[in-house]
Amino acid sequence: MKFLDIAKVYVRSGKGGDGCIAFRREKFIEYGGPWGGNGGRGGDVIVEAVDNLNTLIDYRYQQHVEARNGAPGMGKLMTGGHGDDAIMKVPVGTEIYEEDGETLIADMAKTGQRYTLLRGGNGGFGNAHFKSSTNQAPKFANPGQPGEEKTIILKLKLIADAGLIGKPNAGKSTFLSRVSAARPKIADYPFTTLEPQLGVVKIDESAFVLADLPGLIEGAHEGVGLGDRFLGHAERCNVILHLIDGTEGAIVKTWRTIRTELEAYGHGLEDKPEIVALNKADAIPKAALAKKKASLEKACGKKVFVISGVSGDGVDTVLRALMKEIAKHRGPKVAASRKIEKKAWTP
Q1: How far apart are CA 186 and CA 214, in angstroms?
Q2: pLDDT on residue 340
Q3: Contact yes or no for 292/300 (Cβ under 8 A)
Q4: Cα dihedral 20, 23, 24, 26 in deg (nearest 10)
Q5: With a cut of 70, which residues of the chain have pLDDT below it?
Q6: Rg of the chain, C-alpha, whole Å
Q7: Contact 62, 86 (CB under 8 A)
Q8: Superfamily for 1-156?
C-alpha cells in the first residue's frame, strides 16, 4: 500500500430535518389540533484513531466526507430519523489541522480515540411544539438547522519508540532489515528510502518500534531533499539512533550537519536523547576505525557505538542502549505489557 502522510479533506455535517405542519383529522374529532412532529438531527462528522492503518492513502481518493441529513418530521407527532454520522478512520498519530495547515484542531494519539469534528444541525420543531393557550392551531414549523462545513488538513506522524536518522546511504535500511522483520528497499545509491519504514525490534525480553526515516541532507529543514517532510515523524520518538557511515572521510562534519538540521527544525527534536553509532565497521581497517571513533566521541561528547549492519557486529549492544532509553519514558505497566517471551536477537 502506498504511503501517504498528508491529505486535504472537505467535511460537512448533516442538515437537520424540517419540522412538520400537520393537524389531527379523525372521525368525530372536529378540532384535533396540531399534530406535526419534529425533524431529525443531522449526522456528525467524527474522527476515530484505529491501529490497523498506517497511511492516509484512503483520503487521496475520498476527499469529500459528508454526514447524512436528518429526516423531516411527519404527522401523528412522529419525529424524523437522525442522520447517520460520518466516521473518518485515521491511523494513530494523525493530527487534524485547519485549512491553513498550522492551527491544530486535534491530535489522535491513542487507539480508539474519537473527536467530533463537526456537529450536525438540530431538527426543526413541528407545529405541535408551538401550541399554546393563545394559539391552539399554529400553522407554522421550524426548518432544520444547516450543518457545518470546513476543509481540514490531516497530517500523519508515525508513533515509534525510536527513530533512525542519518545521511543518505548511512545504512539505515540495512540496519532495520537486520534487527526486525521489515524489508525496506536496499541499494547503493542515495535516497533509496522514499518513505518511513516501521519495524518491531525484539531484544532480550522486550520489544520496541523502530522507524527508519528517509535520509537527511544539509538544508533539510528548509525543504532540501526529503528531510522537512519526514522530520515530523521523529517528533514522537523517545530516542534517536543516529547512524553515521564510517567509510566517509568527514564523519564529524556529517554528525554536525544532522545535528544542525535537528536544531533548525525544532519541535523538541534537538533535545531528544541521541545514540550515535558508527556504521559499516566491517569495511574499515581497525586502526582507522579507532581513530574515527575517538574523533567522533570528542565532537559529540558521548560514547559512540561501533556497529556493522551487514555482519551484525555491535548491533545487540546498540539495541540494548536504545531499550534502556525507551524504558525511561515508559510507565511500569506499559513496559510490562510489551515484554515478550522470545530470546534475545542474535546476528
Answers
A1: 12
A2: 42
A3: no
A4: -130
A5: 1-3, 182-195, 215-230, 330-347
A6: 29
A7: no
A8: GTP1/OBG domain (2.70.210.12)
